[in-house]
Amino acid sequence: MTEYPKPPFPHQQQAMPGSTDKMEPRPDHGETSYRGSGRLAGKRAIITGGDSGIGRAVAIAYATREGADLLISYLDEDHDAAETQRWVEEAGRKAVLVPGDIQSAAHCRRIVETAMAELGGIDILVNNAAHQATFDDISEISDEEWELTFRVNIHSMFYLTKAAVPHMPAGSAIINTASVNSDMPNPTLLAYATTKGAIQNFTAGLAQLLAEKEIRANSVAPGPIWTPLIPSTMNEERVSNFGKQVPMKRPGQPAELATAYVMLADPLSSYISGATIAVTGGKPIL
């Protein structure tokens, strides 16, 4: 609980979507810290936003520590995606990289088609990719920004889930990345927080809809997590003090979320569906 860095952090900003290599301190994705036990051996997973941040931590946990093969969907961060792929392949697992924009329903269907062709099936779908931007006044949020946030964060989740479910066998799992903002929206993240509330509701309904198919659906609600999204979407002052507001007085590292995604994908969690797992550094969600 105390070994990771606390703010203040060095002043830093990046262009969206941000790069892991430019972050100080560098995030921990579990490259050496995560210890697995083969709980997902032989499973096949799609992870969106798997190039960096939470997605990379989940990829490392699933493949290099728990035995799954992966399709990693990402926008255009080829360097970060190749680094994730390297960790997966060094562990002897398969990592298929699929760049492209998940705003497109056709691209989401291509992701699923590629997973079927390259992995031979889909047992786990992790809808993790997201767009976030900070605004101090509603007048600053353009119509295009509002629509972009919904297309990336919630529309893609529907497209991918709809395409994947017909190929997912009984016992499969869908895990969606929600947020502490689902229940306690930050006013400066109005568009983002609204989509995260929608994701939590989508997950709760989906779990009920898919129960007869024996497919589970759950969400993870992270608090402040140290990823490239932070220095690329917030001003220097907010980045410097990021995470100070929670009881642990620091942001979480991506590796600290990985166990939640593993637990929700584990077939032994067969009675957990429709749940939201909070990973918030001690801050309760309502």
Sum this structure up briefly.
By secondary structure, the chain is α/β, with parallel strands linked by helices. It has helices at residues 53-65, 78-90, 105-119, 143-164, 190-210, 229-233, 236-240, 255-265; strands at 44-48, 69-74, 95-99, 124-127, 173-177, 216-222, 276-279. A seven-stranded parallel sheet has the order 3-2-1-4-5-6-7, sandwiched between helices.
Structure description:
With 286 residues, the protein is of the alpha/beta class. It has a domain at 40-222 and 257-272: Rossmann fold (3-Layer(aba) Sandwich), CATH 3.40.50. 37% of the residues lie in helices and 13% in strands. The chain has eight helices and seven strands; from the N terminus they run βαβαβαβαβαβαααβ. The chain has a seven-stranded parallel beta sheet with strand order 3-2-1-4-5-6-7, sandwiched between helices. Strand 2 (69-74), helix 2 and strand 3 (95-99) form a beta-alpha-beta unit. Helix 3 runs parallel beside helix 4 (143-164). The mean pLDDT is 93.
Record keyword descriptors for this entry.
seven-stranded parallel beta sheet, Rossmann fold, alpha/beta, 286 residues
